[in-house]
Specification:
Helix content is 65%, strand content 13%. A five-stranded mixed β-sheet has the order 1-5-4-3-2. A hairpin with a 4-residue loop joins strand 3 and strand 4. Helix 1 packs antiparallel against helix 2 and helix 6 runs antiparallel to helix 7.
């Protein structure tokens, strides 16, 4: 057990464990009469935020979050809280949240502590929700950077948008259920005789959670819009590149046409000259007086005809 603060059963006694073994958690379950289903959830982790009542014990699952500056990503942690008539047990499955500040706050606020275990639960909820604020600020900064990268043509921006969108999905899963959980707690104020001052504190936390949840929803929508804009810009860039390739191919084709046309024109006199240059003894025009002028005229006629044909077809 990484950390444990023991107390007596006669007063509010916060106990905290991080990544406990099955034996350690079962020992606590036996000592504080925790429900087996809640213990099973605490052992398995990977639970969605929820609030369950098992007799006089309240079982709460929270998803904490913290923003890591170096990798520019959001790290999520899971916290399970058992709240009984005279005890509070927390089970953490990650580094976040750090509950040392909660303990100091309760020790420094005896008036708050005397309100009982629900006051400790409030302090834990308040710490988790306050931890969302730096995450919101970090994500907002990331989105601002992504918008700049999108319009600067950064090829890696699509990956960054996708990764941040997945983190926002996780953030939504952490904040949305928490809104309902706090409203469920507030709905039970009268039934369970919650102190009026504590009611104010919990309503304040509920307001902060609602605000954070709305910001996260806005972030996800903004990332969806940015991804659409990025896809549009990428498509436009690809179309521009395709047009440039098509234009280059057209120009190259035109050059090939010209080269082929001139090659055909020059081939005609070469062919005639080659035929009459074979020097066979028995060639009809070999000893003809008009043979040379005829050959030259034939070459000129063929070349002119080819030139006219290619010119009409815009090859030249």
């Amino acid at each position: 057990m990484k950390r444990q603060e023991a107390g007596s059963r006669s007063s509010t006694s916060p106990q905290g464990t991080r990544g406990p073994t099955e034996a350690e958690l079962l020992s606590l379950a036996a000592e504080f009469d925790l429900h087996e289903l809640a213990v099973e959830d605490a052992l398995e982790a990977h639970q969605r935020p929820k609030l369950e009542r098992y007799g006089e014990t309240l079982f709460v699952v929270l998803r904490a979050a913290r923003y890591l500056d170096a990798p520019e990503e959001v790290d999520f942690g899971e916290l399970h809280v058992f709240v009984g008539p005279d005890f509070v047990i927390t089970v953490r499955h990650a580094a976040a949240p750090d509950l040392s500040g909660v303990r100091r706050r309760m020790e420094e606020s005896p008036d708050l502590l005397k309100l009982g275990p629900e006051a400790v639960l409030y302090a834990i909820l308040d710490a988790v929700v306050d931890g969302y604020a730096p995450v919101v600020a970090g994500v907002q900064n990331d989105i601002d950077e992504i918008e700049t990268e999108v319009f600067s043509g950064d090829p890696e921006v699509s990956r960054r948008i996708y990764e941040l969108s997945r983190e926002m999905v996780e953030f939504q899963r952490a904040t949305r259920p928490l809104v309902g959980m706090l409203h469920a707690l507030m709905a039970g104020f009268a039934k369970y005789g919650t102190d009026e001052e504590l009611q104010r504190y919990l309503r304040d936390v509920a307001d902060h959670v609602t605000h954070t949840s709305e910001r996260v929803d806005g972030f996800r929508q903004a990332l969806t819009d940015i991804l659409t804009v990025n896809a549009t810009l990428v498509t436009q860039q690809q179309n521009a590149e395709m047009r440039a390739l098509a234009e280059a191919g057209f120009e190259q084709n035109e050059e090939i046409k010209k080269i082929s046309s001139w090659a055909a024109i020059l081939f005609a006199p070469t062919l005639v000259g080659t035929i009459y240059g074979m020097n066979f003894d028995h060639m009809p025009e070999l000893h003809w007086a008009a043979g040379y002028p005829f050959a030259v005229l034939l070459m000129a006629l063929v070349c002119t005809s080819l030139y006219v044909i290619f010119k009409r077809r815009d090859w030249l």
